[in-house]
Amino acid sequence: MKRPLRLLAALALSAAALAAAPAPYGLVLHGGAGVIERQELTPGLEADYRAKLAEARDAGYAVLERGGTAVDAVAAVIAILEDSPLFNAGRGAVLNADGQCELDASIMDGRTLAAGAIAGVHHIRNPIRLARDVMDHSEHVMLIGDGAEQFARSRGYEFVPNEYFQTEMRRAQLERAQARERAAAAPKSSRLSPSGEALLRLNAHKHGTVGCVALDRAGNLAAGTSTGGMTNKKFGRVGDSPIIGAGTYAANASCAVSATGWGEYFIRVGVARSIAARVEFGGAPLPAAAQAAIDDVGRLGGDGGVIALDRAGHVAWPFNTSGMYRALRFSDGRAEVEIFAAR
After folding, report:
1. 309 and 255 Cβ atoms separated by less than 8 Å
2. H or E stretch covering 159
3. Cα separation of 60 and 71, whole Å?
4. What CATH code would you report for 25-163+206-340?
5. Domain spans of the chain?
6. Segment holding 29, helix H or strand E
7. What's this model's pTM, rounded to 2 decimal places?
């Protein structure tokens, strides 16, 4: 009789230990979703993307490992991606119709629901840093344009020339987009050849926005997103990335979300907040909630993807494009870097 009792006691202790085990801490990041075809990404360029995603992931994870906050980790990851010309954020951002880079970013603390965002800035090397300062050192949530840069000046920021952000690839991308725009408005006889149109279509819907969601050792969530917007954008256009509830959202009661894609559709759906609401109020599992939001975007005609993370360490990263640059790392040993959709 003693042996079964001992066995039951051991099982009870094991169950209690499992119940008391903390959730794994870690993070998920993205470098944008869009038309990413295997045959178009050379082995060298693919290796460059994977290396930069892994570098940013590991730097953010190191912040969490040494006890830093989820907000600290998100800011660290995004700053590295902003400094890389591979992505549409910071250096390497797309050009607007005037040939200038206009940068947007946002960040949110899931513990307090504090948030900060900036839009339409031209001279801030790391927009995510300024978004965090709006959250931490102002009474506001969003600052734009000249006002955002005036705030940055008051915080002692060093400004960089807009040329710092511009790359040859982005200039060529703008030229192609504007050529396509002119061709669409021209008489049919003077339009581009079918092969020229195909090339322009290929580059028309690439989204290189960057973002990160993190869960720290204390069980707090955070999310952030940074972007240069859309190539050839006009009239001060702003997408979903700096909009809390559309491109970024974090709440300990639900999840943390960062989005990438065609911003007009993500704004209309309120993608980030809709995922959190499905989890918090509808009781939906995180993967189902994230997929439902992307399905809503797709039904309207938009494309893109999200990364999402909850306090139990569950991850979702659905997208309706051919690829999304993405990576994760967690204290339970999970570690991935991915680019393409699963076959």
Report:
1. yes
2. none
3. 10
4. 3.60.20.30
5. 25-163+206-340, 168-200
6. strand 26-34
7. 0.90
